[in-house]
Amino acid sequence: MNDDRPFDEWDRPTHGWMLPGTVREGHDRTLLLEVATRTLFPTMLVFSLYLLLVGHYSPGGGFSGGLVAGLAFVLRYTAGGSVGLGAVFAVRPPAIIGTGLAISVCTALVPLVLGVQVLTSAKLQVELPLIGVVSTQTSLLLDVGVYVLIVGVVLDLLRSLGSGIDRDMHDAGEVVG
Amino acid sequence: MLALVVAHLVVALVLPLLSARGHRPAFLVAAVLPAVTLVWALAHAGAALGPGVSESVAWAPTLGLELAFRLDALSLAMIVLVSGLGALILVYSAGYFGPTSEEATRSAALLLTFAGVMLGLVLADDLLTLYVFWELTSITSYLLVGQRGDKREGRRAALQALLVTVFGGLSMLLGFVLLGEAAGTYRISEIVAMGRAGEIGGGGMVSAALLLILVGAFTKSAQLPFHPWLPAAMVAPTPVSAYLHAASMVKAGVYLVGRLAPGFSDLAVWWVPIAVAGIGTMLVGGWRALAETDLKRVLAFGTVSQLGFLMVLFGAGGRISALAGVAMLLAHGLFKAPLFMAVGAIDHATGTRDLRQLSGLRHALPGLAAAAVLAAASMAGLPPMLGFLGKEAAFEAFLHEGGVRGWTIALGLLLGSVLTAAYSARFVWGAFGRKRGRDATPVHPPGRLLTVPVWLCALGGLATGLAFPVADALAGTYAAQYVPADAEAAEYHLALWHGLGLPLLFSAVAIGGGLGVHRLRRQVKRLSRRTPFDAQAGYENTVAGLERVAVVVTGRSQVGSLPAYLATILAVVVALIGPVTLLMGTWPAQPLYHQVAQVPLAVAVMVAALAVVRSRRRFTAVLLVGVIGYGVGGLFVVEGAPDLALAQFLVETLSLVAFVFVLRRLPAHFTGKPTRRRSQWAKAALATVGGVVVAGVAVVLSGARVGPASASDDFLALAPDGAGADNVIAAILVDFRALDTIGEIGVLFVAAAGVASLVLATRYDRRHSSGQGSPRHEEDVLG
Fold first, then answer.
1. Rounded to the nearest 5 degrees, what angle is found at the Cα of B543, between the Cα atoms of B542 and B544?
2. CA B5 to chain centre
3. Where is the NADH-Ubiquinone oxidoreductase (complex I) chain 5 N-terminal domain (chain B) (predicted)?
C-alpha cells in the first residue's frame, strides 16, 4: 500500500485489506487463501442463516447452520490466524456456548409460564405488506439456541486446539505452521 | 403429623438467626416445639391407645409413593422419649453450652432437626418413609458427633458411626423392598397384620428380607458386632450423647424390631439372631462398662448392654415380653438421659469425667447425687422404679415360657442384669463416692439449667414406677398385638408386687450379685483387660481391607494402556452380542445394493478403511478416515437422507480440521519401534472379528423389524400440522424429541468445556513456573 501515488488515494481502504488487521509473519501468509476467505466468509455466514431458517421445510436446521457458520470461522482462522479471530469476535467462546444453551432452555421453559407443557410449540403468522403471509414456529427459537451453541463450540475448539497449540509451539520455539 | 415434622425442620432452619442473639434463647426456643409435640401426642393418647391415628400424604402418586404416618401405643412411647426428653435436653443444652461456644449455634439447629426427623421415624407407617427418616437421623448424628470437624478423634468417630449405620441402612432398604414386594404393600401396619395372619407368601424372600432388616436394626442399635461406634461417638458434647446416643436414636433399631415383631416373632429366622445378638450384646456391653474409667464411656457401654436387653425383649418373646419391652424402653430413656446429663454437670463443675480423679462429690453436690442415685436405682432394677417393673416382667416372660429357650434367655438376662447392677454401682461410686487417699475434688456449682432436667427425668422414672397402671395401659395396648400363650400370660400386668416367686428371686440375685461384683472391682478390672476379641479392630481392619481391595481393583482395571481398554471393549461387545445374533438373528433377504451409485462409494470406503490400517503416517490416516466419512455421507445421499448427509459432511470437515490442528504437535509417524508380531496378530484378529460382528449385527438388526414402523408413521402424520414442519427430521429434532436435543446440546457444552480445560490446562502442567489455577491459566480456560 503505497501512499505516494495519487491514484491510490481515492480507493484507499479505511480498514486493513488483509484479514488479521495486524499481519502475520510473511512466510505464513497465503494470499490466495486470504482473498478467498474475504469472499467466502460473509457468504458462508449468510448461507448458515439460510440453513437455520429453512430447517423446518428442507434439509438444514440449527445444527447444520451452526456448523457452516463455524466452518466459516475455521476458514478465517486458517487464513488469518488467531489474531484474525479476535478481530471478529470479542466475546469469549464459553459465553457464546452458554448463551445458546440458555436460549434453548428458556424456549423450553417459557410454555410452562404460559400454563402449558414444557417444550410446547406454537405457530406464529404475520401478514406483511407486499410479501404476504409469513409464518414460523416458536420452536425456531430452540434451533437458534442450537445454532449459537454450535458456533460457540467451534470457536472454543479453535481457541483451544488452534491458538492454544499455536502459542504452545511459539513458546517452545517451534515454527508455527 | 407431617406438619409437626416439617415445623421442626423449618424452625431449625431459622434458628441460626436467633443464635446470633445468644445461644441460650436459641436452645429455649428450640425446646418449645418438642414440648408442643409431646402435648399433642398426649392429647391424642386416647385415640393412640385405641385404633390409632393415621394420616397419609401422596408423595409421588404415579410411583405409588406416599408419606404415611400413624400414631399408636409404641409410637406414643417413643414420642415421650423423642419429644419429652428432647425438650428437657434442649433446655439442659442452654445451660451446657457456654455463651462463647462456637459449637452451640449449629448444635441447636441440628438437635432440633434431629428431633424432627426422629419424630418422623417413629410416626412413619410406610417402610420407605421410615427409611428416609432413618438415614436422616444417621446424617444428623454424623454432623453432631463430628462437630466442627477440627478434631481428628471427632471426625473418626463421626465417620465410623455414619459408615456402620448407613451400611446397615442400605441392607435394611434392600430388606424393605423385598418385604414390601412380598407383601404387596409398604404400609407397616398392613404388613404386620398380614404377617400375624400368616398371609405373606414367598417364604425364602421374607426370610432374606427379615435378616437384611435385622442388620439395619443391629447397626443402628449398636448390637454385637457393630457396637463400637456407640462408645466412640461419646466424643460428642454431652447433650448430644444424652439425646442421640442414649435416649432416642440408638433406640431406632429396637423400635423397628418392636414394630415388626408382632408379625414375625414366631419365625426362627427372626428370633434366633435377635436372641443371640441381644444377649451377647447385653453381656459384652455390661462387662466392658466395668473396665472403663471415663464416666461417659461407662454409660455408653451400659447403653450398649441395655440395647441388647431391649432387643431381646421386643424381638424374641410374646405378650409379657412385649410389656417388659415397652416398660424398659421408657425406663431406659428416663434413667440414661439424666445420668448422661449428670455427667455433663459434673464435667462442668469439676472439669473432669475420670472416675479415678473424682472424689467426695456426694457432699459437694448432694442434690445432683440424689437425682443420679435415683436414676441409677432404676437402671439397676430397684423397686419402686420403672426399671424394676420392666425387669420383673422380663424375667416373668421367659420363666413363664419355660423350656430350653425360655430358661436360656432368662439366665442370660439374669447374668446381664448382674452386670447392669454392677456398673450402676460403679457409676454411683465413681461419680459421687469418696476414694481412699484422694482429696475432695474442687467444685464450681452447676447452674439450675443443668440440674433441674436431671431431677425431672429421674422423678419421671420414679413416678411412672409408682403409677404403674399408666405404664401398663400403654404397654398393654402394644402387647395386645400378641396372642397370649395361655390364660396366665393373658392376665399378666405390670405391677410392683406379684407375690413371691422366681422373678422376684431373679431381681434380688441380680442386685446382690451386682453389688458383689462391684466389691471385687479390682479383680474384675484386671480380668477385663484380657479380652480375646476386639470389635473396634474388626471395624478398622474392614475399612482398611476395603481400601486395599479398591487399590488392587483400580490398579488391575486401570492399566493406562489404550490398546488394553479398546481390546476389553471389543471383546465384551463380541462376546455378548455375537453369539446372540448368531443364534437368534436371521439374515435379511435383501439385494446387495439398491442403486448402482452405492457400489463405487462402498468400494471407496472399504479401500480407505484397509488403507488406514496400513498407513504409517498420522496425516495419511486422518485423511483416509475423512475419506471414509465422506463416503458414508455419500451413501446417505444415495439412500435419500439429505439431512443426515449434510450433518455428516459438515462434521467430517470440522473433525478433519480439528485433527490437523492437533497433528501439528504430534510426531509425523505413529510409532518409532514396531510392535511384536504376535501381539500384532492378536490385535488384528480381534479387530477383524469385532468389525465383522458389528457389521453383521447392523445388517441383521436392520432386517429384524417385523411390525409396521408405528412411531415414524405418527411422526410423518403429525409433522406438518402438529409441528408445522414439512421436514420431518426437523420436526423430530425441535419438537417431538426436543428434550433430547436440549440434552444433547448440554453434552456438547460439557464436551467443549472439557476440551478447552484439558488442552489449556496441560499446557501449564508441563511448565514448572505456574501450575493449574494460576491467573493466566484461569484466563486461558475462560477465554
1. 90
2. 20
3. 62-96
3-state SS class at A24: coil
What was the pLDDT predicted at B773? 47
Distances (CA, A) of B424 to B248, B421, B435, B512: 20, 5, 17, 12
Q: Kindly compute the dihedral angle of the four CA atoms of residues B122, B124, B130, B136, in this order, to the nearest 10 degrees.
A: -60
User: Is the CB of residue A157 less than 8 Å away from at least one CB of chain B?
Assistant: yes
| Residue B602: C-alpha distances to residues B10, B24, B101, B641, B680 (Å) | 68, 82, 78, 16, 27
CA angle B157-B162-B164, nearest 5°? 95
Separation of alpha carbons A151 and A71, rounded Å = 9
Position B219 scores a pLDDT of 95
CA B721 vs. chain centroid, Å, equals 52
Residue type at A139 in one-letter notation: S
Span B311-322, mean pLDDT?
A: 90
Does any CB of chain A come closer than 8 Å to the CB of residue B268?
no
Q: Which residue from B minimizes the CA distance to A147?
A: B745
Indicate if the pLDDT at residue A20 is higher than 50.
no
B742-765, pLDDT tens digit by residue?
A: 999 999 999 988 888 887 766 555
- Is B772 a residue whose pLDDT tops 80? no
Rounded distance between C-alpha atoms, residue B334 and residue B45, angstroms: 19
Residue A24 in this model has a pLDDT that exceeds 60: no
Ramachandran region of residue B560, left (φ > 0), alpha (ψ -120 to 50) or beta?
left
Q: Report the distance separating Cα B105 and Cα B108, nearest Å.
A: 6
Interface test with B, best of A77, A143, A160, A169 (most B CBs within 10 A): A160
CB pairs under 8 A between A and B: 159
Mean pLDDT of all residues in chain B?
88
Between CA B618 and CA B606 the distance in angstroms is 19
ipTM of predicted complex? 0.83
